[in-house]
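Tip: read the tokens left to right.
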């Protein structure tokens, strides 16, 4: 429970303004790569797979294995039938579950996006579970935590009483840069290099996960176009619902009033291909 609180506290950091370039990270940035199948960490999969062969094989013979119906053969590798230790899935036992991960940068609206996901009765998105240090201290603890999560034994406020059809977590690509300060002055010398750095980070991540089934979402698109959330539900193969968030935007008003040296920032971005970030088209 302490861990949960910790995670909540951490999660809320995301809505605070960052120390530097809020501009960069808030409106700009971007990306949720959602990864189906735990390929976020192929090592983990191997370990999980390795463990369940042999020793558990005789156990599986007892229960009739679940068969997913109406599923394309190419989709089958992504389906799982977890058997949680902490509770019985009972009537949900043969409802397939998909695993996902949200890869994101700070200030990209991923916390809000998660609340939207969690408003779906069949989706459980558990936030930055690796913000708790002991869980990421070595590969064994990471695997153990992922095992627990994907086996539905990781109980958080995101856990569902309904049948879970998609379970996942959030991972920050730039974890080290969580620092907050109200109304920052943006160092305009560093602004373009910073934007470029975030671009590169995202490009690299996409390269790394390109062979994994994924969907890319931009904050601005989710704001502007609610049909994007239909795409997400299609991706997770859950029944389509109207997703809602009770998260309140804490920084209201124009961008220009939130940045100490807005005029300098404007001057710096004018004429570059980041100029569109000056627009306020992301307003709720
Ligand atoms: C991993 O970390 C945990 C907790 O910090 C510790 O108990 C365990 O011995 C470590 N395992 C390895 C293989 O280092
Ligand atoms: C979603 O949850 C409901 C309620 O538990 C369940 O009846 C339904 O089968 C679930 N849908 C999926 C796709 O698992
Ligand atoms: C901006 O950052 C550069 C490099 O770190 C530094 O040399 C410069 O003094 C900073 N400018 C301001 C106004 O803080
Ligand atoms: C909204 O997104 C859908 C796909 O997600 C796309 O087909 C449609 O053209 C978009 N609408 C607007 C107004 O951008």
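Filled-in amino acids:
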């Amino acid at each position: 429970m302490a861990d949960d609180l910790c995670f909540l506290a951490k999660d809320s950091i995301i809505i605070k303004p960052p120390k530097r370039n809020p501009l960069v990270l808030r409106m700009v940035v971007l990306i949720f790569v959602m990864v189906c199948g735990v390929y976020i960490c192929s090592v983990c999969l191997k370990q999980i797979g390795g463990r369940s062969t042999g020793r558990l094989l005789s156990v599986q013979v007892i229960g009739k294995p679940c068969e997913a119906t109406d599923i394309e053969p190419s989709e089958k590798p992504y389906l799982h039938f977890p058997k949680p230790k902490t509770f019985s899935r009972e009537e949900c036992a043969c409802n397939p579950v998909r695993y996902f991960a949200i890869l994101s940068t700070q200030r990209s609206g991923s916390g809000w996006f998660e609340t939207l996901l969690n408003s779906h009765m069949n989706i459980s998105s558990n936030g930055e579970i690796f913000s708790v240090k002991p869980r990421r201290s070595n590969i064994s603890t990471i695997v153990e935590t992922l095992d627990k999560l994907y086996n539905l034994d990781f109980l958080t406020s995101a856990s569902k009483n309904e049948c879970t059809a998609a379970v996942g977590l959030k991972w920050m690509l730039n974890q080290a840069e969580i620092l907050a300060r109200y109304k920052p002055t943006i160092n305009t010398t560093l602004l373009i290099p910073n934007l470029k750095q975030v671009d590169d980070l995202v490009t690299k991540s996409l390269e790394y996960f390109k062979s994994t089934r994924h969907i890319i979402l931009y904050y601005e698109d989710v704001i502007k176009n609610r049909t994007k959330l239909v795409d997400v539900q299609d991706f997770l193969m859950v029944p389509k619902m109207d997703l809602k968030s009770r998260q309140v935007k804490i920084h209201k008003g124009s961008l220009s009033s939130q940045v100490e040296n807005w005029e300098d920032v404007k001057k710096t971005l004018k004429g570059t291909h980041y100029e569109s970030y000056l627009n306020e088209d992301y307003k709720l």
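Confidence is low (pLDDT under 50) at residues 1-61, 177-181. Strands lie at 32-34, 98-104, 123-125, 166-172, 216-217.
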